[in-house]
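User: Fold this; tokens only.

Assistant: Input:
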Amino acid sequence: MRDFALKNAITFEKDFLKSFENIIFCELTRSFDEIFYTDKLDFYIPSENLGIICIPFLPPELILRRFSKILDHLKSLQIKNLTILTLGNEGAGKKDEIECEIIPFWEWALRQ
């Protein structure tokens, strides 16, 4: 875990994506002991066959296109569910028996 508050307080340089990922990581550590990452996934939880990607601002159509591009990677990890965390977008898709859910962070956090 890393606290970005100090850096944000003393510099003008902000990295929203890193802060967003850190918040999600902190939430995940409350529920899972083993959390990994790959070059295409922000978080990978093998015990749940779950992949998580943080894409705060893209529209659902572009997110689903990215989902299609990483299908082989998801299959190689035996991932059954991919969760895409956004700030406000929602959507869903399914390809090759892999479910993709696009969900706002606040809704996902309430499920945890």
